[in-house]
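Structure, all five chains, one model.
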Amino acid sequence: MTLSVAEKSYLYDSLASTPSVRPDGRHQHQFRPIEIYTDFLPSSNGSSRIIASDGSECIVSVKAKVVDHSLDSDLLQVEIDIAGERDDSLITESCTSLFNKVLRSIDTKKLQLTKKYSFKLFIDVLVLSSNSYPVSLISFGIYSALNSTALPKLVSNFDDLEVEELPMFHDYDLVPLEVNAPLVFVLAVVKNNIFIDPAANESEVANNGLIVSWSDGKVIAPIRTIALNETNTKGFNPQLIQQGIKLVDQYAEEIAKALTNL
Amino acid sequence: MSQFEVYSPEGLRMDGRRWNELRRFETSINTHSHAADGSSYLEQGNNKIITLVKGPTEPALRSQLDQTKATLSISVNVTKFSKFERSKSTGNTKNERRILEMQTALVRTFEKNLMLNLYPRTIIDIEIHVLQQDGGILGSLINGITLACIDAGIAMYDYISGVSIGLYDTTPLLDVNSLEEAAMSCVTLGVVGKSEKLSLLQVEDKIPLDRLENVLAIGIAGAHRIRDLMDTALRAHAEKRVLNASKR
Amino acid sequence: MNAEISYLDNVDGSCLYNTPHTRVVASATGPVEPKARQELPTQLALELSVRPAAGVATTREVRIQDSVRAVITSILAAYKYPRQLCQLTLQVLQAGESEELFHCLELAACVNSAVFALVDAGVALTALALATTVALAHDGTATAEPSRQQLMDARSVHTVVFRIVDGKPEDILSMDSHGDFSEADILKVLDVAETSAKQLNAQFRETVLARVNIV
Amino acid sequence: MAKDIEVSTAESQFILEALKQNYRLDGRSFEQFRDVKITFGEELGDVLVELGRTKVHCKISSSITEPYEDRPFEGLFFISTESTPMAGPQFESGNNTGEDEVLISRIIEKAVRRSGALDIEGLCIVAGSKCWAVRASVHFLDCDGGFVDASCIAVMTALLHYRKPDITVHGEKIIVHPVDEREPVALGILHIPVCVTSSFFNPVDAEQNIKGEENSEIVLVDATLKEELLREGVLTVTLNKNREVVQVSKAGGLPMDAMTLMECCHRAYDITERITDQILAAVKEDIAKRDKYSAILSSENAR
Amino acid sequence: MSEVISVVSRNGAFQKTMIMEEFSSDESEDDYNMTGSEDEEEGEEGAEKSSSKPTSKKSSKNIDSELMTPGELITSDPIWMRGHGTYFLENDTYSSVAGRVSKVNKLLSVIPLKSRYAPETGDHVVGRIAEVSNKRWKVDIGGKQHAILMLGSVNLPGGILRRKSESDELQMRSFLKEGDLLNAEVQSLFQDGAASLHTRSLKYGKLRNGQFCQVPNSLIVRSKNHTHNLPGNVTVVLGVNGYIWLRMTSSMDLARDAPPGGSTQVSGGEASGRAAGPTGAVSLNPNASLSITRLEEESSWKIYSDENDASITNQLKQTISRYANIIKALAFCEVGITHERIVLGYEASLAYSDVGALIQRDNMEALGADVLNAERMRGNAE
């Protein structure tokens, strides 16, 4: 997105002033509205579709497969495809690696079926369109998809170390997967202010960006900075990181609740 | 009767349809108004397809610039989760020959139907995402593109509707799903409007030459019905827009 | 040796090159407009590819390709065509040797067919280059243009490319040797190769002349 | 394609005008398939097919390898089609993702491999561990149209002509007998698919084509390169002598009446019959010739 | 609803409309359903047989007869001239798009429901510079092709009568560079439909002191005037192409809008200004004494300045944000965007002291409804 110099300085001044004015009048901690649809892919164990009010959209599928966890201990695997970007583009690869890290906070014990076998979850993310850095959108998508995921119910014995048998499942009963999926937030730093969920034009003038992950009531690793544009990025006051974390701490619970209330 | 009988003596297919019944056909138009100039979402049976049309617009590359007409580009993204079993391939599915062939067939189908000469020096970019597939995918892609192009306001001669027909012994089965597709030879058609003209015709497995005509006839009838379903959906959508417009 | 010049229709120069066991089709297109990345500011760029008779190109073909390229670039009057491109494609139809063990017959055939194709295309050359293969048997006899069996039985195998000036082999442009051999062996091989090259040159002139007379 | 080759406006108008008056540039009738010339190389499975001025070479090779895990009872069969600038400036070296290259290779794939023309179960040596891998390498030498048709003939002729070395199995150990020791073995060919390509031209407006009643489109069998460059649609039908449609591909292009397409298929069958006979006769003749030589050879050895 | 985030969610569906079908398949569709349409064949699912006639035949007769879809026969009467959105074979005219038939004199055309912006001569558009090339700028105006702005079609610093020199060609980026926003008038159309723009009037040119927003071009109705002063010291430029600029009202804006003899006269004056000669010298408003000096003044480098006015207060920025949200809300409700509606929207929006609340879906819908209601009331009153 290219903005004119006058636009940029108008936006920057608005965001940098105290009190700040966001171009759509939002509060510092306010998200843009989103729409969520879940469980619309019958051939996946869980699915979600998130649409942001600017038309950014992401679709997530969760598929489970039974694996021997002694052979394959990586029970969660995320693959991200961003429309219009190559698979080896910087943004695709950095998002994929970020989420593969973030999801380590999920307790994979919940996926264990028997002493020998576990479910392995393949989380496929398709970002159909995005106007700003898509990690928040993706994390909401993964969160909702995991929340809507239901797995076949185990009927065979838990202790199968001695028996040469694959786990058996109930014909149609499913068990909802209950995991605390992490959320990832993007915050934009403009001078001495920090904003949650920057829109595309806000990102364009931000001095820096902050990615903060949150799970189960607390901020978790990774927390990192991210350049949101190529022209305005520069250093910022370390206190802003604290502020950012505080913001997330304060409001993440509410987001999680809003996402869960289906 | 076995549950997995392809076509029962009573004349029922695995999913309970008769030989000449289409699958559930539901479609929405202008589903992604922010992301594209025209868009459609199509469910044909369990095929779920998003089609985005971007353009006509200024081409990004000089090589895409044609002085006499618009350049048409179609990319098909078959997601890894689209089948019941997740695709194992580690690499990019976009470069598979099967996909490339499909893209070429689609471009050549719509090149003759869209009035590209009205949009010189521009590019029309069509992006398709297959969220779920269950047989007869090429036909569904054609339907999705037709609707999305109409939504984008791109001039075209007529609808093109796509459908696949299987031949079970001597019985043609209309609009096959993936189980049927795997069990028998199939023919895919792309039919122009209500005519008997075929834009696209593909047979990938053996079929007796003397049965082909019959299969084509059933397919054309089925495609005409799909055209009508699309038309009905489009009109419903259009009425609503006209209603909104009257508020202006 | 026998060569059919102008064997193909859609290229500027071509040749079907037959020896008793090896067959190669060569095509030359040029000088033509190059792609931006191929373009050389002061001379002709050469795009060369060697395709095997069976399967896809491997390092073996790349090796032949490199040897042919070295020979061809040394005889091309590349300075005459700045910012232009010449495409040379060499398709082996029949290797005439065990492909796992040898590549000498193909190399010789590729060089010769490439030269034919370039001449047919009318691309300027500073000299001719002709290749010949010599097999040295265990008893010390050197045979030019060996058969499949002679190759298998040879102690060493040599492919020699000569630059032909005034109808005579002058310099060695390339030599590719395999097996055990001594210095004396080499001299003997070169001797045989030179004779063979002379013969080849005679045949070459005959073929080209026949072609010119038709035109 | 690397470079767009174009026919000049004047020439294209001339060709189209001639077509409207029922003439083709080479004097053929619209339904006429060019003469096919089949020549064999020194080795088995080495075939050069000439269709008019189009030249396609095919070579079969085989080796012993491991079968796919999920198909332990089947051998491997590959068809590789690589195009180079040799065939014409429209082809690019090392690029096989061009639209036409992809279509050609996919049609041959469907016509020959997918249709089961080669008995791949017969290539199994030891289930799950050893099998033959047969490769057909198709080389496009010169393009004057009809690559698919010529390639299909080349591949099928070469497969029929090829003999793989005889083997003896001792448990897991396999002895490959050199060709001069034991008579090599022919491959199992289950049917002979033949491709026939028809090209479509629209002598009237697009509107007439879509809405008109007349079906005035022109259909040419076996187009030459120039005709291919000017055509607006193409249909490749693959049939065998058992009146089976093996593959049909009309990947878009000029919309055509279904009945016209059926006529193309029926016409293709006549051509298929004739070509099949020609392939079989050519292979038979060449193999017989080789037998004669080997008879002479063996008698010499006996002396 | 959460104040932090508002979430609309559904389980077991890909989109909202699918739900509508499940719960109200027997009801006719209502206005609520805006993002798409559903297939009415649902009810027939499974009951379909080859013998059951498709519904389109009858519906095409029943519904508004002017609605056409591609390939449909519009008329077999040869008296019509065929315009956009149609094609013909002999006497038959067919539609090539989905839309309404428009008959102007003998010209028959079909206007698509939606398409990219198609420029017409005289359109007032807002555009963004996409490329600077030889003696011209290429401007993104949301059309099929970039519009062209020739170096000769802009006012250059140093007065209107100054000749263009080679140095101007070399410093084109110092006037307008990639990303810069401007408003301009479509001067003419090229053969292929691309627009040629000019900014040779002081009401056109580079845009400053505000914020950009974008709506579908079909929502902007062509009218005499596309620049409006709004309550709260804000001026809006409603580009016909759907690009909109909201800015602090300048003294120029005030001058334009404060006519001695009522608004009609001003627009009349502007209309004549628009038709002025190539120098654009008379293209200002009729207050001649004001215009001459202003022209001198404005034609200085300042008209290409990237600096915003230092006097823009936070309060004003809030108001601009409010207007941006109002416009987005109107667009969300697919209501045509006019000066009057923006003002009505502003009045209605004052019920929300928090500007940020206006981005919520419910509030946007309510605002849209309020505007239409207010309009109806006003219409009744008159």
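The helical segments of chain C are 59-75, 104-121, 148-153, 183-214.
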